[in-house]
Amino acid sequence: MSTAEQIAKKARIAGNSLKTISNENRSAILYKIHDALKADASTIEQANKLDLQLAQENHLSDSLLKRLDLFKGDKFDTMLQGIKDVADLEDPVGKIKMARELDEGLTLYQVTAPVGVLLVIFESRPEVIANITALCIKSGNSGILKGGKESVHTFREMAKIINETIEKYHEETGVPVGAVQLIETRQDVNDLLSQDEYIDLVVPRGSNALVRNIKDSTKIPVLGHADGICSIYVDKDADLEKAKRITLDAKTNYPAGCNAMETLLINPSLPSWCEVLENLTREGKVTLHVMNDVKEAYFKQLESLGRLDDVIKSSTVDVNESKDFDKEFLSLDCAVKFITSTQAAINHINLHSSRHTDAIITENKDDAELFLKGVDSSGVYWNASTRFADGFRYGFGTEVGISTSKIHARGPVGLDGLVIYQYQIRGNGQVASDYLGAGGNKAFVHKDLDLTKK
Amino acid sequence: MSTAEQIAKKARIAGNSLKTISNENRSAILYKIHDALKADASTIEQANKLDLQLAQENHLSDSLLKRLDLFKGDKFDTMLQGIKDVADLEDPVGKIKMARELDEGLTLYQVTAPVGVLLVIFESRPEVIANITALCIKSGNSGILKGGKESVHTFREMAKIINETIEKYHEETGVPVGAVQLIETRQDVNDLLSQDEYIDLVVPRGSNALVRNIKDSTKIPVLGHADGICSIYVDKDADLEKAKRITLDAKTNYPAGCNAMETLLINPSLPSWCEVLENLTREGKVTLHVMNDVKEAYFKQLESLGRLDDVIKSSTVDVNESKDFDKEFLSLDCAVKFITSTQAAINHINLHSSRHTDAIITENKDDAELFLKGVDSSGVYWNASTRFADGFRYGFGTEVGISTSKIHARGPVGLDGLVIYQYQIRGNGQVASDYLGAGGNKAFVHKDLDLTKK
């Protein structure tokens, strides 16, 4: 048996056990892990200093160093609080979603259950291992975790503490050893991606290249996002001030975010539409990658208003039409195109967007409803910034990731994305051959039971 | 652009349009399709006769001939009625599953939406094309359909009528041409399996080999079932009569069904346990593939009762331990093993079953609850036959298939498995930078709205 198979099989066995553990015990072990990490803070800090030192020696970027530093500001305390927050969430497992009487004394229940075994791959942020551990255990899934290599000493130390804690309290809580396993190399990940018999879901967090690479190398379902190519359509009936505020926020609040606007579709019938573009450049320092007809009309309007200056000229460049509307700039750049109807905007978005989040700005309810119904993205917004696409802003408490998949879970994914359901039947000796369709005469009752009554 | 890409792109465009069509119009076109198929029954019958004639010339089996014959008994009328039944189902699209006030005038909705484009592959049963067409259109998905080659003339004729009807009423209903496309060759299927940019879900119905082959050849998610290796555990506290009835039904009611029992786990502490085995053989003509210790104890008991005869002896064979507990017999055969605790039964099932449906027979509630919680299959039953795992019996109205996947949809899948959700935000110009976490001071309200109130 290969090492990868051993790890995967151990995770499967742990997962089978974990799914039977009560919410009280799943939460209790998270509190114990919280306490142990807190008590061992100084050991973790030493390991973290080693990672930082090696990163400095390797001349890694300042932003990476900042991410690596677990003890900067209140990051460590926030991480600890996060574990307790997840522990205190409502139990996602064992919720009855449907109950139906099939016949007297024969009842069908649809009950939430953990997915099983998760392989979670994440970036070099030391606090994420605590977060993912909490999410896995709370949702009754066993996890195989791989973090970015720059944090390996911190991860190793924290995984050691987490596993010792699980082992120490195993008798008390029932949470199995093997519920959380840390792996360290990219080769381990590659080997595990072939363990589709044991692993149920891969959750990659990080770059698009990582997600795409993983999707290409495994038969296991992948919950991850490809690109975040978000568009905003400013309709002819848009409120100009809303259009200016929303596009500026969507583009500039955090340009590196996957929910930032990358494409602006603007209807030239909107009076003073050029102010939307001007505002992006003057207020937001945005470089606009525009179509020829947009440039011509934009410059002409600004000239007639006496506002066509060098700032505008140098920030308005020709769009690469065959590429830029399918591009995630992740910078203060935006592709711009004229669109003359809501249906045309829907068509453009369904063809070019990455099915992440797209918005319409309009005061016309009919156009808004058409857009909300027609656009095939996980988030469809009316008069709000695409930047709201986020687990925290949606009130999910915690976020596993943002999914651009079309099945299972879309958009910001909370604990709900880590559970699925099982059908339970509770009977009293019933057999199918007594019923119609299988040789018998009895008819099914099929009466839904009221779940609000206990 | 390849033919496959053209087909897939056409389906995508049709799907984008179909998702905006009202339930009234989606149902209306199904009634029109019903009427057209009914009116053209004689043309369809001619095509069907051609398929039957070719099948006879090719010496295909009687059971296949029976499946091919669309006009045998009331099969054609049942098919027509099925279209109307699906049309009359509750709309699966646009259901609000969650509504949350994020802030005053900023509301988040989780709304069901079609998955998008389905590639459905099914067996040589002419009536299935009508069924799948109805399911696709009702759920707002466009479908690319491929049926078994033996029915190709019937499929072709029916697809022609369906497409002419959609075209004829396109202006009236809005249902787009291209909503349903028939493809005819295995090569077309292979080519389409690489169109993961346009196709969202593959639904293969048919043999396990087909499903496995498709899973191995595509990056598109597959909703299908691998094997149906269902087990029944007869506990020491089982009611003997229930155990006899349920195992007999589960094994013999329809041995070729994926929900038939393939493995019997029996606790030798149950008094008269040997009657469960004897009943399977004498009443059900079942050949038992038993472990050595089972055989020894079974024969000894029957001998002492004076019932060890040639029928029993010839129907009790040695199990191939390394293979038979992972095998779908699909015949009057069953693997048998002693299991001495519910936990051991859970462990065996989680290791060997195909996560389809497994049952415990016991009068002990604690053991039943442990089993229901511990077994990781889509169906977990207490004192009922595994044969109940079926969309009709669950009351789903119609069944897309039975899924042994761990994500998106498990077990019998109704229309619900063909929809997913989108998040809508309806705002009034709100931007993220006004709120905490993105640079502002406003806090989110996160107040769930009551969905039972309209």
Give an account of the 3D structure:
The structure is a homodimer of 454-residue chains. The first copy, chain A, has 454 residues and is α/β, with parallel strands linked by helices. Chain A has two domains: 3-216, 3-Layer(aba) Sandwich (Aldehyde Dehydrogenase, Chain A, domain 1), CATH 3.40.605.10; 230-394, Aldehyde Dehydrogenase, Chain A, domain 2 (3-Layer(aba) Sandwich). Chain A has 17 helices and 17 strands. A seven-stranded parallel beta sheet of chain A has the order 10-9-11-8-7-12-13, with helices on both faces. In chain A, strands 16-2-1-17 form a four-stranded antiparallel beta sheet, with no helix packed on it. In chain A, strands 5-4-3-6 form a four-stranded parallel beta sheet, sandwiched between helices. In chain A, β14 and β15 form a beta hairpin. In chain A, α1 packs across α9 and α2 crosses α7. Chain A is globular, with a radius of gyration of 26 Å. Chains A and B meet through α1, β2, α11, α15 and α16 of A and α1, β2, α11, α15 and α16 of B. β16 (419-430) of chain A pairs parallel with β13 of chain B.
Q: Largest interface, per-chain counts?
A: A-B, 83 and 83 residues
Q: Low-confidence stretches of chain A at least 5 residues in length (pLDDT < 50)?
A: none
Measured between the Cα atoms of the first and last residue of chain A, the distance is 48 Å
Give the biggest beta sheet of chain A: 7 strands, parallel
Beta-strand content of chain A: 15-25%
Structure described in brief:
Two copies of one chain form a homodimer. With 454 residues, chain A is an alpha/beta fold.
